[in-house]
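Hi V.,

You were right to ask for the full record rather than a summary. Here it is.
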Amino acid sequence: MSMPAIAWYSRLAKATAHFCGRPWVFALAVSVIAVWIVTGPLFGFSDTWQLVINTGTTIITFLMVFLIQNTQNRDTEAIQLKLDELIRATKGAHNALLDLEELEDESLAAFRARYQALAGEARAQLGRGLKDTGTPEV
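Predicted structure:
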């Protein structure tokens, strides 16, 4: 995909997710279902009557999954970048933690184990009435 196409899709996904998250859009969806239920006796609860709602909701759900996932991916990436900047700008922070979400599971597990050990040490210090603040390396 070219950059203009990606930018167009990104703007569309963001606008659609924002639009569909409004309360009145939910009320509209509930109204459509209510109208569909009320028309059931009119159409004799036929297979076509059922197919209309099933097809409509399936198509909308299928498309919304992609739009919402795009918006979620953008939000997550933005949060990760903000966290990376906080790590980078904090004196004494470990720069090895930058871009951590891109590591393989084994490497991530090693970092997790180290921080779980640090948390255990800090809780033990609290239990002895000591402070748990400061940098562990000092």
